[in-house]
Amino acid sequence: MGAGAATLGFGNMLRPVVAEDLRDKDRQVLCIWLDGGMSQLESWDPKPNTQFGGPFRAIPTSVPGIHVSELLPKTAQQMHHLAILRSVHTQDNSHSAGVARINRGDPKERGVVYPYLGSAVAKLMGPTKTGLPPYVWVKPGSGGFKTQDAGFLGPSYGALALGDAKPPANLLPHPSLTSADYQLRQELRTRFNERFGKRRFNNEMAADTSVYDIAQTLMRRMDLFDESKVPAKDVVRYGSHELGRHLLMGRRLIEAGVRFVKVNSYHWDSHGDHFNSSDCLHRQFDQPFAALIEDLADRSLLDNVLVIVLSEFGRTPRINSHCGRDHWPEAWSVAMAGCGIQRGAVVGATNALGTFVEGPEHDIGHLFHTWFQALGIPKEHMEYINQDQPLPVAHDDFSAISELLS
Question: Which InterPro entries does this entry report, sorted A to Z (predicted)?
Answer without folding.
Answer: Alkaline_phosphatase_core_sf (IPR017850), DUF1501 (IPR010869)
